[in-house]
Task: inverse folding
């Protein structure tokens, strides 16, 4: 009889983390991959966008594979639509953001390599959004969270 390792299982994180309206569901975390990669399912509703400031990552790549709908990314000023079956690698240091300008919710698989970030960053951001009941979230607090997780926010007039 084959014995299963209790540390190896499908969909280790059944939690869906909501940041504003965007949803993150980690399928593989750095703990499961010895830090080599994290995989996350990102759902962006119609009309939604990245609710944190545009940003860059200096210590990891972020690759996205479109599952459904179309997510529009802006990477170093270039606008790129990612639809089902299409992939986009955002290299280290590239300033990027996203939006869903389509007519259906968009879903992508996000690969973070190496697995520098995981669900904890999105849990913290979610908490900031949940405390902002009378207006936008505290952008200074959001930027501080991003910096702690090797993400560099781009200053804007609203952030």
Result:
């Amino acid at each position: 009889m084959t014995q299963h390792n209790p540390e190896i299982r499908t969909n280790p994180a059944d939690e869906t983390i909501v940041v504003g309206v965007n949803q993150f569901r980690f399928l593989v975390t750095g703990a499961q991959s010895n830090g080599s990669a994290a995989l996350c399912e990102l759902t962006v509703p119609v009309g939604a966008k990245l609710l944190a400031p545009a940003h860059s990552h200096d210590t990891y790549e972020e690759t996205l594979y479109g599952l459904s709908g179309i997510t529009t990314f802006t990477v170093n000023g270039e606008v790129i639509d990612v639809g089902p079956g299409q992939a986009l690698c955002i290299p280290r240091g590239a300033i990027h953001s996203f939006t869903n300008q389509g007519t259906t919710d968009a879903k992508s698989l996000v690969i973070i390599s190496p697995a520098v970030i995981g669900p904890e960053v999105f849990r913290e951001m979610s908490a900031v959004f949940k405390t902002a009941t009378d207006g936008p979230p505290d952008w200074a607090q959001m930027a501080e969270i991003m910096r702690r997780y090797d993400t560099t926010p781009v200053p804007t007039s609203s952030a």
Observations:
- The first strand starts at residue 17 and ends at 19.
- DSSP finds two helices and eleven strands in the chain.
